[in-house]
Structures are given as C-alpha cells and as structure tokens.
Design brief:
There is one protein chain. By secondary structure, the chain is of the alpha/beta class. The longest helix is centred in the middle third of the chain and has 14 residues.
C-alpha cells in the first residue's frame, strides 16, 4: 500500500457512488458525486490525446475514476483527485486558519521550505530566518525541484502545494521531510487524516459553500479568485507547531 492506495481505501464505502457531473476546466477540474470535489487541472501530457472515454464518464462509479490516481497521466490524476475530494467526508472538527497567518505567528526565526510558489510568501520575509522556494518551473530566486534532495532536509517547516499529488512528487517530498513540521495545502489537497499517517502535521484544503455555483465557475474557466466567494479554506491538524 502507498499513499494513493490508502487514500482510495479510505473511501471504500463509497465505491459504488455514481458520478453525477464533471468538468475539466482550464484551471480547475470538478467532479460532482456526493458533493463537488475539485483539483487543479494539470495536463503535462503533450503526447496524450486526452481522456479516452470522454463523453461517457458521467454515470460511472467513482472507483473507475479513483483508479486514475494509479496512472501516470496527470490529466487523469487531476480527475482522480477531484473525485476523491468529492467523496471525503468533511471533518467534524476543523479550523478556518489562513496558512500564511499561521506561519507569521509560528514561523519566527524558522527556515521555511516551500514546495510551490505562492504569492503570499512575501508576507513571511521579515519573520522567517530563511525562505526557500522549490519549483518545477522556477522563477527568479526559486530553486529547481531537482535540488529538493538537499534543500528539504535543511528546513524546519516544509510547506507543500497539493499539486504534488498530481505530479506524484508528494511521496518523495514526504520522505525527505520526515521529522520536520509538514504542511500540505491548497484546493487540490485531500482533507483526509490519511495524510497524518505519512508525517503531515497540518492539512489545508477547501470546503464548498455552494456546490452548483462552484461547479459553474470552474466550467466557465474561473480562477482561484472567482472560487473564493463559494469556498472556505479550512485546516485540520495532527499537532501544533
């Protein structure tokens, strides 16, 4: 078993649930089963022709799309994650903590390693001892993701974008981050306590406030700024920093 198998197994009681509706939008992917689950649309398969069974996915059982998580096709994995997120029961106890506000309060004099480039990182520049940003497509002052083998073990706090579930870098990142304070966050991130078993300390995901409106925004090419009106950013924690 690995992290993907464990996430799939965690919703085993819902395997026969039907896909009511889905949309692969320009920026986000949405799947409506029990509720709307979303994931970043990540299509890094230029050699692929798309989803082979496109046009026939609605009405399928969720297990068929959950199995996309076991592939190496990032577009399919996006659909698999959105499906997973549509099935995970919303935790009874969660907090509405902004991850960056949390790091401002708790990250003083800490070396923070970000996997993924976030605009709000600049808020931490006067707080943290050092900030390192690791990116697959690095901007100025970012580090290429191949350097993560050396940089992650040096950090005190490792903050990871949920899109690492799609490109399947999450497994190695969590191995490198063992013993650190680990945060995984973003709309793609599964709000599942399964992640705690893999060393994650804080999980930040989203909860829909209006499933229909959320689905419509995604199907019409909406950005994260459009989504903010219909989602809440929530966190669950294994332990505090």
């Amino acid at each position: 078993m690995d992290i993907y198998d464990d996430l799939i197994f965690s919703v085993k009681d819902k395997f026969n649930t039907k896909i009511n509706k889905l949309c692969v939008g320009v920026r986000w992917t949405a799947v409506y089963s029990n509720r709307v689950g979303i994931s970043m649309t990540y299509n890094n398969n230029d050699h692929k022709s798309g989803i082979e069974d496109a046009g026939n996915l609605e009405g399928k059982t969720v297990i068929e799309l959950l199995n996309y998580l076991k592939t190496f096709d990032t577009l399919k994995i996006s659909l698999g994650l959105a499906t997973l997120n549509s099935l995970i029961k919303i935790p009874e106890k969660y907090e509405t903590i902004n991850i960056f506000d949390y790091l401002i309060n708790k990250g003083k004099d800490k070396k923070i390693v970000f996997i993924g480039h976030f605009e709000d990182i600049k808020k931490l520049e006067k707080i943290a001892k050092e900030i390192i940003i690791i990116e697959r497509k690095p901007r100025e002052n970012d580090y290429l993701d191949t350097f993560q083998e050396y940089l992650i073990p040096e950090g005190d706090i490792i903050a990871i974008t949920g899109s690492t579930f799609i490109n399947k870098s999450i497994k190695r990142i969590l191995e490198l981050a063992k013993g650190k304070y680990v945060i995984v966050f973003g709309p793609t991130t599964p709000l599942s306590e399964v992640l705690f078993d893999y060393g994650v300390d804080m999980i930040g995901g989203v909860v829909s406030k209006n499933d229909l409106k959320l689905f419509n925004i995604i199907s019409q090419g909406g950005s994260i700024n459009n989504l903010k009106e219909v989602i809440d950013f929530v966190t669950i924690k294994r332990r505090d920093l």
